[in-house]
Amino acid sequence: MRWMIYGANGYTGELIARQAARDGMRPVLAGRNARAIHRLGDELGCETSIFALSREAAIEALHDVDLVLHCAGPFTDTSQVMIEACLETGTHYLDITGEIDVFEYVHSKQRVAQAKERGVILCSGVGFDVIPTDCVARKLKELIPDATTLALGFSAAAGISPGTMKTAVRGLGSSSVERVNGKLSSFPIGAKRRTIDFGRGSRTAIAIPWGDVSTAYYTTDIPNITTWVPVPTAAAYAARALSWFSPILGKEAVQERLLRYVDENVSGPDEAVREKSSTYVWGEATNEEGRKVVVRIQTASTYAFTVYGALAVVKRLLGSGGMLAGSFTPAMLFGSHFIEEIQGSSSFVIDEIRP
Questions:
Q1: How many CB atoms lie under 10 A from the CB of residue 255?
Q2: How many Å apart are CA 130 and CA 125, to the nearest integer?
């Protein structure tokens, strides 16, 4: 099967391309920046394809491609065109997004029906966003099938890439999000706080708009979902104060200046940081009787995990004889234990708390 990395010249796209080449894979390297793509293709011995993300150009470029791994964010701006082109050409679609809007688009009834009709697999979030927490969510559903409330989170130490920082900037003008009775619901960033032991001691954590408020619902059908990260206590209060300025931070002129700052000053963590860092992933499910189960697992650093996780999904799909078509989360495709098979991951640690 012939497969493509679109956005191969970006921070994460290039990491994935280089690891793919080390693994003996030869993806088509694609993107808009001809100079950067050709340079990387020559270095790695890979075919290249240069096209901007218009529907017509993408359809032409994908006509003989079996699978595309989409790595060009912000995905809210770029994913829809690529997904539509994949549906038109019968190309399986993967991306490494963590953006809720993209997940909701992929799992909409219309997209599910189109994917099934065209024989296409759509699977967003095949990197750190959201494989680890998605697998933890599925594991919790297996352990407590009647769960009504699900909380997920992670504690990470590595730096941040330009693409991820741009996604965060785009979110400064919006609210946090949770799932309440099956529906997405907004609330001010920093408004919800709790103490969580992610695996290395109790920390103050705040609820954030992480992708699992979308994906974990489709994976587990649990109706109430929140997502959490640890922060210093002072930062938790600062986040609440920052939400008061969201109308200003969301203005186009302010966004343009912040995005330009990212382009000029953010480069992403280097190899040493990626290799020595690790991430702690946590999940908690509760049923109506008050039974509570906690699952923890340790993984490689966020960007290293994204490289390993995305390629693990690609390899499975390229080697599959024929999987069901439709829209999926990673854990829907491969089960809860998929995370334990990815390089750098430990095994699940499970604690049960009876009422």
A1: 16
A2: 5
CA distance 129 to 313: 13
What span, in angstroms and rounded, lies between the C-alpha atoms of 81 and 62?
12
Phi, psi of 57 (to 5 degrees): -65, -40
* CA neighbor of 124 nearest in space, from 70, 61, 165, 57: 70
pLDDT per position as a tens digit, 127-149: 998 999 999 999 999 999 999 99
Per-residue pLDDT tens digits for 4-50: 999 999 999 999 999 999 999 999 999 999 999 999 999 999 999 99
CB atoms within 10 A of CB 108: 12
SS3 content of the chain, % helix, strand, coil (to 5): 45, 25, 30
Name the residue with tokens 């953010």: 266
φ/ψ bin of 294: left (φ > 0), alpha (ψ from -120 to 50), beta (otherwise) = beta
* Residue pair 353/293 in contact by the 8 Å Cβ criterion: yes
Residue 271 banded pLDDT, cuts 50, 70, 90: low
The pLDDT score that the predictor gives to residue 243 is 53
Query: Residue type for 10, please?
Result: G
